[in-house]
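Hi C.,

You asked whether I'd gotten around to modeling the 118-residue construct. I have! Everything is below, sequence then structure, no commentary in between.
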Amino acid sequence: MFKIKTKRIYEEPKAEDGYRVLVDRLWPRGISKEATRLDEWDKLVAPSTGLRKWFGHKPELFEAFKERYAEELKDQATELKRLKAIVDKQDLCLLYAAKDPEVNHAVVLAAILKKIKS
């Protein structure tokens, strides 16, 4: 069985990452596209600009953010199923630029993907 992982895009790419997908709407500052060794950049599953700005990575807003983001992702069912199909074949690494490894949208996205039946 393959895994869904989350990882900061600024960390060194590794072979065990599997299929590497940037899930941010904006390109991360200070990093070149070549250095990321991305397989794809999927803006469709990133939080909306309004939600991202509202959240501002404030831990006290994380629970409410998770609910709002999950609601937004309901409009991306096809894209979520496509990402889940990747996990049926190989590990999937969701890349994000946020500093906190536990309070970010990639963690929420990974949890939602894990609940989707193949």
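If it helps when you're writing up: The first helix runs from residue 33 to 36.

Thanks,
B.
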